[in-house]
Each structure stands twice: as C-alpha cells, then as structure tokens.
Amino acid sequence: MSAAAQKHIQLALALPARLRTFFARYPSAEILPAAAESEKLKTAYQQESPNPFLATKHPVTGKWHDPKYSLRRQAEIVKLARENGVESLLPYTPKGTEERLRKRVELGLRVKGTGVGQQVKGHKHERQLVAKMEKRRKAMLEMPELIREWKKVGKRNWTKYPKSSS
C-alpha cells in the first residue's frame, strides 16, 4: 500500500462511526480509484439508489420512493461531515451548506417587508412618525425667526397669512 493510501485510511478511521458507515455504503467518486467509477464497482446500496438523499422513481412502476435518509438524518450527516471537513465528499442534498446559502440569497428572510426597498406596514402612527418628526424639526429651526417677528409685531397682531396690499 502506498503512503497516500495509508494516509487516507487513517483519516477515514478518524471519522465518526456514522460517517464511516455512510461512506462505506455510498463512497464518493473522489475517493474511489479511477477504475471504480464504472458500473461494476458500485456498491449494492449505490445500485439501489445512486443518491440516498433524493427520492427515486421506480423504473417499472413509475412510483416515487422516499429518500433512504430522511431530511433530519441528512441534516445530521451534513453537520457531522462539515465538522470533520468532508462535506464536499457527500452527494447533493437540500440540507447541504451550499444549497442552504443559495436558498437564503434567493428567497431572503421570507418576512414581509424585509426585502430591498420594502417596509413593514406597521400602525398608522408608526408610518407617519418620520414625516411628523421632520415637520417638527423644521418648525423648531424656524422658531427663533418667528419669535423675533412676534416681538416686532406683537403676538395679537401677528398672522401667518401675509397681509395683502389692497
């Protein structure tokens, strides 16, 4: 046995038992030698269902069979593989990190109003708060000028409507 093969065996033995069992049943094409990629050298499990994480259609009856691993078990295996740095050796699964990230980018948070350029509806007073505070800020900035005008004219004689010269 070569040193590289010995190293791969040591790494495989370091994996948790659940991952070792999975890779024994469904070895990745990356770990198998080039000759093993042919149909003859596939395990019985792989011949039955090439990807244990996806549903398969029966060739004769046309009925769909559930995946060999439930979504919960898929998530557990992916988590174990990620922790041990071998997630790339797993077949495609909807629970994989790449797929989850792709979905998150595509769908966003799925909360109404959290997308780009959207607002959560909120109560009427919440929606009008920004405009109301802006109006109040403008009034406060104009207040010193208004006070000066009142002192000149007197509050009783003051009007916000300009006097028309008629």
Automatic annotation (TrEMBL):
<dbReference type="GO" id="GO:0005762">
    <property type="term" value="C:mitochondrial large ribosomal subunit"/>
</dbReference>
<dbReference type="GO" id="GO:0003735">
    <property type="term" value="F:structural constituent of ribosome"/>
</dbReference>
<dbReference type="InterPro" id="IPR037507">
    <property type="entry name" value="Ribosomal_mL59"/>
</dbReference>
<protein>
    <recommendedName>
        <fullName>Large ribosomal subunit protein mL59 domain-containing protein</fullName>
    </recommendedName>
</protein>
<dbReference type="Pfam" id="PF18126">
    <property type="entry name" value="Mitoc_mL59"/>
</dbReference>
<feature type="domain" description="Large ribosomal subunit protein mL59">
    <location>
        <begin position="18"/>
        <end position="152"/>
    </location>
</feature>
<dbReference type="InterPro" id="IPR040922">
    <property type="entry name" value="Ribosomal_mL59_dom"/>
</dbReference>
